[in-house]
Amino acid sequence: MQELISNVLSGASFGSVYALLAIGLVLAYKTSGIFNLAYGAQAFVSAAVYYDLRANHGVPIVVSVLVAVILVAPLLGLLLDRALFRYLRTAPPIARLVTVLGLLVAIPQILKLWFGQSPQYGTQGIVPDGEHTYNPFGQVFVTRNDLATIGVTVVVVIGLTILFRRTALGLRMRAVVESPRMTELAGIDADRVGMAAWMLCSLLAGLAGVLLSPLFASVNETNFTTLVVIAMSAAVLASLTSIPIAFAGGLGLGIVAEVVNAYLPTDSVFASNLRPALPFIVLFLVLTLSPSLRNRRELTDPLAGVDPPPPPPVASVRSPLLTTGTRVFGTVVGVSMAYYIFFHAAPNWVDLAIRAVIYSTIFLSITVITGMAGEISLCTATFAAIGACTTGQLATRADVSVLVAMLIGGLVAAVVGALLALPALRLGGIFLSLVTFAFALFFENVLVKLSWVGGGAIPVKVPRPLIGSIDFDGSDKTFLVLTLIVLVVCSVIVIAVREGTTGRTLDALRGSETAAVSIGISATRARIVVFALSAAIAGIGGAMLGIYERAVNYNPNFVAFQSLFFVVLVVSLGCRTVEGAIQAAIGFVAFQKVVLEQVVPWVVNHVQPWYHMGLPPATLSIILLSLGAFTYAKHPEGVLEFQKRRSLDRVEARLARWTGRDAEAVGAGSGGAA
Questions:
Q1: Cα gap 110→440, rounded to integer Å
Q2: Whose CA is closest to 637, among 577, 588, 596?
């Protein structure tokens, strides 16, 4: 009994921090309509500042807390609001999600430029002698840090409840998230209210980060991101509206997790893998089983109907002359590149081309699910891993032909995607993204470690195919031909679906789901088909990557956070067209192979401050490519599509002057101002 009480008290300490994180997520959603997935990254910033002040400079506890929580955290919230979030108040939900995904990926990497690349150890709590214990129940002990964490959380809950129920500022915060334009008509400064809300949310994140620091052996971003997943469960349990329920949910989850960890057997491989996956399982179950989420209405601005519709793709509005010229130019460039790669290129350039083609296939799955269905899946890399693992297992254990195994791998990924879509698609929006993210984390922490899935400690081997006398293992250039064939087939399928009944159905659903359903369109069926197709394409692309590398290298190719990076990259560049996926893949691979392997080493060797900081190339790549997500709020069609539209307007204006046509008519035809 005493052991149970000890576990409950220990869980209450963790649960208080979970509750604080959950309250911050609820607060951000209530005051901005944004589900802040970067909340853990903000907490990491304050935790790092607090650690540096206490451990490295010996600053007193009170001063360290004031700087990290009262100064740095609100300033970070102010910076994010002024730079990003104020532009998202009337943006569609997908723009908000993509932007916070970019923050989730970029903030920890930017902070590491100052904090260092390695985890830091030995953080002290916010009270002196925090490890001092009390034993109010006999042999049951509780530390000062635990009591401080629980006390601070209770005070925060009471204060926020009073703020939203009893003050004018709380009422204005709720009004701004419903419609900033309508609140401004009532004389309320929506910008100032939104700025105050984000500073308050960031302060709570900083407070949670400082309280979390002594609970772990080291300060690193992974700990904070994992804990935010648990906090998501409590926030979703509260339907992203109730602060008291979020507090109770976070407290309860902390207690349950500690008790389950204490009594779960340790001699079982499945149980030992299940321990770190409990937060993701809880999040998945809460999302799929919570009755309050089934008919939940997304927060939308009542005045959003006055916004102009999104511009059409450039390819659909340019003149026949420009269309012909673009196709001729593209063909000439493609043939020239193919000639160089197949007849003159060095092996490293052939490797670059193969990887670009393979990632183009994987990125096509994002074109399907996001560009066509308007939903964001955060498990693209997981579906790619499923296809790769299935291919490797069938080819090595069952002696199945590699190409047949690849098709079966795509089919398995499609089946898993369809099964995942059944409970997820009825949620939609941010909740669908959270379900897919929870599944990706569960797959990474449990399934991929099983020998019959990911091979365990030894990656699954994947042989290259042999078709008649053509041995794709003998020459990378021959394998490049195979990857091109796979990409072309997948691209044709995507274009056919987009131009067919399913694509038109999805267009109708994006326009007005109520009107589409009223004429007999099945929204669920269309989205399940697209979700399964997206998973299948990702599975085939993952299988091709495994075949090329002759092994399923889960880390770093298919880790869960790779999916976030893929989505940010493709969506910010352009996810509505096949060429957008191809351009994103070329940019991704070229950046890694050219900039990181040639430009960055030169900079590191010639710029001494960077050299002393020990800046790894991967960190720079993540920072630069993630920052591209911040442009999505202004250009939801993608940066490349936006630039093509601007170029089209200029070219059409020049043609108008040369041919004597009306420049205004030309600008209207191109979808922009001439």
A1: 25
A2: 577
Mean pLDDT across the stretch 442-448?
A: 85
Q: Which amino acid is at 218?
A: S
Instruction: Name the strand (E) or helix (H) holding 231.
Output: helix 221-237
The residues near 149 (Cβ < 8 Å, ≥ 6 apart) are 13, 16, 17, 211
Q: What is the pLDDT of residues 38-70, one digit of tens each?
A: 888 888 899 889 988 888 888 888 899 999 999
Non-local (6+) Cβ contacts of 198 within 8 A are 28, 31, 32, 77, 78, 80, 81, 85
Separation between Cα atoms, residue 120 and residue 4, nearest integer Å? 32
Q: E strands of 599-674, at which residues?
A: none
Question: How far is the C-alpha of 617 from the C-alpha of 596, rounded, in Å?
Answer: 5
| Helices H / strands E in the chain, number of each | 29, 6
Q: Give one DSSP letter per residue of 45-78, joined into a string.
A: HHHHHHHIIIIIT---HHHHHIIIIIIIHHHHHH
pLDDT in tens, 591-637: 766 665 666 566 556 554 444 444 555 555 566 655 666 666 666 66
489: tokens are 């087939």
Neighbours of 495 (CB within 10 A): 14
Query: C-alpha distances in angstroms, 499 versus 283, 506, 524, 545, 580?
Result: 36, 11, 19, 29, 17
Q: Please tell me the distance from the alpha carbon of residue 565 to that of residue 625, in angstroms, as a whole number.
A: 8
What's the pTM? 0.82
Q: In whole angstroms, what is the distance from residue 577 CA to residue 571 CA?
A: 11
Q: How many residues does the chain have?
A: 674
**Does the pLDDT value for residue 344 go beyond 80?**
yes
CA distance 654 to 315: 18
Name the helix (H) or strand (E) containing 250. Answer: helix 243-263
